[in-house]
Design brief:
Largest sheet: 7 strands, mixed
Order of helices and strands: EEHEEHEHEHEH
Oligomer: single chain
Mean pLDDT: 89
Strand content: 15-25%
Low-confidence stretches: 52-58
Structural class: alpha/beta
Number of helices: 5
Length: 209
C-alpha cells in the first residue's frame, strides 16, 4: 500500500505556536537543491503537491499533508545556500531546529541527499542535531538516475560505510531514489509504514497500561 498516494495538503505554518494537533507525523528535510520537493511529488504521485522551484530554498514554511493512514507528512524548509534575507534565514533556521527537537508527534525523519554529493557538512550536522531525539532517520539518495547502475551500487556502499559510526548510535537506514525513474518508492513506503505501525503499537500499549 502506498501511504503517500492520496496525500492532501492540510496547512502551512510559520510559527511553532501554530502547529496543528496531529496523531503522528514524519518529516522530509534536505539541502535546498537535493530534490526534496520532487521526491515528495513522486511519492504522492502528484505533480505539484510540493512546490518545485528553479530557485532552491523557496519552501520557507512548514507544510503539512495528511496521509491515507491518518498520519501526517511534513515538508520542512530546505537548508543551505538559499538566497533569502538574513532575518528570514535566522527565523527559518530557528523554526526548523525547534520543530525537529521539540515536536512530540514527530516519529521519524526522511533526509534527502543528492546521490552525486551525499553527506555534505550540513547533512552531517543534521544527523548530529537530530540524534538527540532518539528517533529514526531514513536517507534517500535522490537523483540516482544521474548515476550509472554501477555507480549507484558504489555510492550506496560508500555512504553506508561512512554512516557506520552514526548507525551505532541511532537508527539510520539508506536507499537509492529517483523521482524521474520512480525508483525506490516501495522501499520508502516500507520504512515509513513500519514507523507508523510501531507508533500505533506503542500508543496501544500505553492505553492498555
Amino acid at each position: 500500500m502506498n501511504l503517500f498516494q492520496n496525500a492532501k495538503f492540510f496547512t502551512t505554518v510559520n510559527h511553532l505556536k501554530d502547529l496543528p494537533d496531529t496523531p503522528a507525523e514524519i518529516a522530509f528535510v534536505g539541502r535546498s537543491n537535493a530534490g526534496k520537493s520532487s521526491a515528495i511529488n513522486t511519492l504522492t504521485n502528484h505533480v505539484r503537491l510540493a512546490y518545485v522551484s528553479k530557485t532552491p530554498g523557496r519552501t520557507q514554511h512548514i507544510n503539512f499533508f495528511e496521509l491515507s493512514n491518518g498520519g501526517f507528512m511534513v515538508d520542512l524548509p530546505g537548508y543551505g545556500y538559499a538566497q533569502v534575507p538574513e532575518a528570514v534565514r535566522v527565523h527559518w533556521v530557528k523554526l526548523l531546529g525547534d520543530y525537529l527537537q521539540q515536536r512530540r508527534q514527530l516519529i521519524g525523519l526522511v533526509l534527502i541527499m543528492d546521490a552525486r554529493h551525499p553527506l555534505k557538512e550540513l547533512d552531517i550536522r543534521m544527523l548530529d542535531f537530530f540524534h538527540a531525539t532518539g528517533r529514526p532517520v531514513h536517507i534517500l539518495l535522490s537523483k540516482a538516475d544521474k548515476l550509472s547502475k554501477n555507480d549507484q551500487i558504489k555510492t550506496l556502499s560508500a555512504v553506508k560505510k561512512m554512516l557506520k559510526p552514526y548507525m551505532e548510535r541511532q537508527q539510520i537506514s539508506v536507499q537509492l531514489f529517483s523521482s524521474l525513474k520512480k525508483q525506490g518508492i516501495e522501499e520508502v513506503n516500507g520504512v515509513v509504514g513500519e514507523w507508523f505501525a510501531k507508533e500505533a503499537q506503542a500508543e496501544g500499549d500505553k492505553e492498555e497500561g
